[in-house]
Design goal:
Structural class: alpha/beta
Oligomer: single chain
Distance between the termini: 31 Å
Strand content: 15-25%
Strand order of the largest sheet: 1-2-11-10-3-4-6-5-7
Order of helices and strands: HEEHEEEEEEEHEHEH
Number of domains: 1
Radius of gyration: 18 Å
Number of strands: 11
CATH architecture: 3-Layer(aba) Sandwich
Largest sheet: 9 strands, mixed
Number of helices: 5
């Protein structure tokens, strides 16, 4: 890691032999950053609607309207995404790559997250896709993520970021991309810090960068809780 990047570090956490270093800032301004892998879910220019207000429908036998989540906007999502700064890293996993696949090498391994598990809804995509810079067979991770019907450790918890991923999904990325234990993983669009949690649980070092101060604090709080839980148990 360069001295320039080290001078902007805001938070660093350690658990056992691995660490998580979190930066508040624009990832492109912090380059170059040394890492063994880039695994990230970047803003890719879809202008995601994050303030959904109050839905017009009501639950059965109730006069109460359903209130949808009102998240902060995803910074940078109003511009096309350029993946080129990240493609020279040894291992790369980029979510949402179907939206900018014309800028990527064809014939590489893809990961697919099936978010529905047969539960049909009309307001969101049934799946999300990630491109990797490796050869291999397409792999599918099935984990229900529709509204309150979340499966896994997030079950019953409200999402805290509009494009939040399950910890189990990011752990799968580490395994499918064959990131060695002890390696350093960079997430330049960290969001709520899920990649960092997956790294700490699987004995990988983590570098996360987030431009939005609110989401940066959320990521710091989540990773600090993860570190403290690891010490406790």
């Amino acid at each position: 890691m360069t001295a320039e990047v080290e001078s902007t570090a805001l938070r660093k956490f350690n658990r056992g032999n691995v660490s998580a270093t979190l930066y508040l800032g624009d990832c492109l301004e912090l380059l170059p950053i040394e890492a063994d892998a880039v695994i990230t879910d970047p803003p890719y220019g879809i202008k995601l609607q994050t303030r959904n207000g109050t839905r017009g429908n009501t639950p059965p036998h109730s006069n109460r309207k359903l209130t949808a989540n009102n998240w902060r906007p995803v910074l940078g999502d109003d511009q096309p995404f350029d993946p080129s700064p990240w493609l020279e890293y040894p291992i790369v996993v980029l979510w949402g790559a179907n939206c900018y696949c014309d800028k990527l090498t064809r014939g590489m391994k893809w990961l697919v997250w099936d978010k529905r598990e047969g539960v049909m809804q009309n307001d969101n995509s049934d799946c999300e896709m990630a491109w990797t810079n490796q050869k291999g067979l397409l792999r599918i991770h099935r984990q229900l993520w529709a509204g309150l019907l979340q499966r896994g450790e997030e079950n019953g918890q409200a999402r805290i970021h509009p494009t939040q991923k399950p910890v189990a999904l990011m752990a799968l990325c580490l395994e499918e991309a064959k990131v060695p234990e002890g390696a350093t993983v960079l997430d330049p669009y960290m969001g709520s810090g899920t990649t960092g949690i997956a790294c700490l649980r699987t004995n990988r070092n983590f570098i996360g960068i987030e431009k939005d101060p609110t989401y940066f604090k959320i990521a710091c709080d989540r990773i600090e809780r993860e570190v403290n839980q690891g010490v406790m148990f």
